[in-house]
Amino acid sequence: MLSSGRTVSSRLLRPASWLPFRLCPERTAVSSMPKELIKKHELEKDELRPLYMDFQATTPMDPRVLDAMLPYHVNYYGNPHSRTHAYGWESETAMETARKQVADLIGADPREIIFTSGATESNNMAIKGVARFYKAKKRHVITTQTEHKCVLDSCRVLEAEGFTISYLPVQKNGLLDLELLEASIGPETSLVSVMTVNNEIGVKQPIKEIGQICRSKGVFLHTDAAQAVGKIPMSVTDWKIDLMSISGHKIYGPKGVGALYVRRRPRVRLEPLQNGGGQERGLRSGTVPTPLAVGLGAACSIAQKEMEYDEQRVSMLANRLVQKIMSEIPDVILNGDPEQRYSGCVNLSFAYVEGESLLMALKDVALSSGSACTSASLEPSYVLRAIGADEDLAHSSIRFGIGRFTTEEEVDYTAEKCIQQVRRLREMSPLWEMVQEGIDLKSIKWTQH
Amino acid sequence: MMAASSRSQVISLYKAMVKASSRFPSYNYRTYALRRVRDAFRANGKVEDPRAVEKLLEEGQQMLALIQRQVSIGQMYGAQRTVVE
């Protein structure tokens, strides 16, 4: 159903306080309200919901997943670890079915799957757990500069404990240089952690080749596959992955659940973070939340069945979006490798436009300039800086997340609004004016005053 | 050519699924369900083997029940219209 007439655009209020640099002549409309409040207020006035184009932050739950979970929220409430009655047994059966569904998606054995609270916990467990277990002989861990915050932060903790960490730089296209990786692995190295698909720019690291290198050097490979599992075909056997983090809410499953794959042969050992009743092979004590585990299992099984269908659609929509925007406005840069990527994550930099202003202007589309964890700060993304994006381009990037439930209409609407707002913001930008007059911005000496 | 009886069963299942899907209050679920149902029937349009048809019909019936349940749940909590509707 298409409703007519209702427009959502209205003049934007801009408090000067949160602008990192002064570009906009609309500064007269100064208000002390924080930007979230303004945006919220504007939306409530219009009574319409913005479009959701932020599938890397989280995905809506698939109705099929909710349908699988509900019985375990209603009737089957037993503790899956209770061995003495039917309530426990039925929950255990459901949990083991879910474990198998997760394992099947990544080509693993169900016994290699540990349920966790999400990819952050899985990453913490894998990195700290492996490093600490082998610390007597090996005290070196390798990762990259574009990893998710939870990987980098776990490494910082290890550093404080006396481990050496190599944060490898990535190339301009966001991919890890395999020769650099090979040269960085030493006799002290216990673990290499590289994410499969980057959450901000969507590039796909050559995990298969990295797995080969790690196996030949006798080093464990951990990969944060939160953004990759269920979206691109993955096999822990073929890719020689030793540990893999999975998240429920990135694959149309419930929030608050994830999994860690831990290889059995050759065996990977890790020190648990959480001690207690010895559930999950003693690696993650605590009662497994049956409904969430069932939801993760259902999400994995649906992802496996729908992978090809989803992939075709998502890449079609992504191409449509990029083509529409790039054909209409100049100086738009696609961040990250154009080939080695997951198509559903489109990160564009609009030169001479400040990303935050664009996000504010596109208030009827739910978008983000990078990861949700850092979306409150105005700092440019460290991922974009790691791929060598200039400061100004890093400030002008927007991430478009496309997924299973995105429609053509949403893509067209987003593209149209984006084109319109970029044009408007550029028109009022003195930088854009200077570029049009042929002045090279890099030649200007900005003085502080 | 599949048997006439199963043909009519397929058609009525398709109609029922489209009808149920169109009642999802959420814009994104509704458009997805309609698209997915249509594409699944199209993809299986060439299936002739009566046993395979039987199996697909059974799966379809289960999916229809699922859609009906989820539509009811969706209707309980209401959904705001999005800007493209």
UniProtKB/TrEMBL annotation, chain A:
| Assigned EC number | 2.8.1.7
Question: Which GO BP annotation is one of this protein's?
Answer: [4Fe-4S] cluster assembly
Q: Which InterPro entries match?
A: Aminotrans_V_dom (IPR000192), Aminotrans_V_PyrdxlP_BS (IPR020578), Cys_deSase_IscS (IPR010240), Cysteine_dSase (IPR016454), PyrdxlP-dep_Trfase (IPR015424), PyrdxlP-dep_Trfase_major (IPR015421), PyrdxlP-dep_Trfase_small (IPR015422)
Cofactor annotation: pyridoxal 5'-phosphate
Name a Pfam family for this protein: Aminotran_5
Q: Which UniProt keywords apply?
A: Iron, Iron-sulfur, Lyase, Metal-binding, Molybdenum cofactor biosynthesis, Pyridoxal phosphate, Transferase
Describe its assembly.
Homodimer. Component of the mitochondrial core iron-sulfur cluster (ISC) complex composed of NFS1, LYRM4, NDUFAB1, ISCU, FXN, and FDX2; this complex is a heterohexamer containing two copies of each monomer. Component of cyteine desulfurase complex composed of NFS1, LYRM4 and NDUFAB1; this complex contributes to the activation of cysteine desulfurase activity and NFS1 stabilization. Interacts (homodimer form) with ISCU (D-state); each monomer interacts with the C-terminal regions of each NFS1 monomer. Interacts with HSPA9. Interacts (via homodimer form) with FDX2.
Q: Does the keyword Nuclease apply?
A: no
Q: What is this protein called?
A: Cysteine desulfurase
NCBIfam families associated with the record? IscS, PRK14012.1
What Gene3D superfamilies does the annotation carry?
Aspartate Aminotransferase, domain 1 (3.90.1150.10), Type I PLP-dependent aspartate aminotransferase-like (Major domain) (3.40.640.10)
Catalyzes what?
L-cysteinyl-[cysteine desulfurase] + L-cysteine = S-sulfanyl-L-cysteinyl-[cysteine desulfurase] + L-alanine
Is the keyword Metal-binding assigned to this protein?
yes
List each copy of the Aminotransferase class V domain by range. Answer: 52-413
The similarity comment for this entry is: Belongs to the class-V pyridoxal-phosphate-dependent aminotransferase family. NifS/IscS subfamily.
Q: Which GO terms describe its molecular function?
A: cysteine desulfurase activity; iron-sulfur cluster binding; lyase activity; metal ion binding; pyridoxal phosphate binding
Span of the secretion signal?
none
List the record's Gene Ontology CC terms alphabetically: mitochondrial [2Fe-2S] assembly complex; nucleus
TrEMBL record, chain B:
Q: Can you give the residue ranges of the Complex 1 LYR protein domain? A: 9-64
Cellular component annotations (GO), alphabetically ordered:
L-cysteine desulfurase complex; mitochondrion
Q: Where are the transmembrane segments?
A: none
Q: Which domain of life is it from?
A: Eukaryota
Q: Name one GO biological process term.
A: iron-sulfur cluster assembly
Pfam families the UniProt entry points to: Complex1_LYR (PF05347)
Family (UniProt):
Belongs to the complex I LYR family.
Its protein name is LYR motif containing 4
Q: Which organism is it from?
A: Fundulus heteroclitus (Killifish)
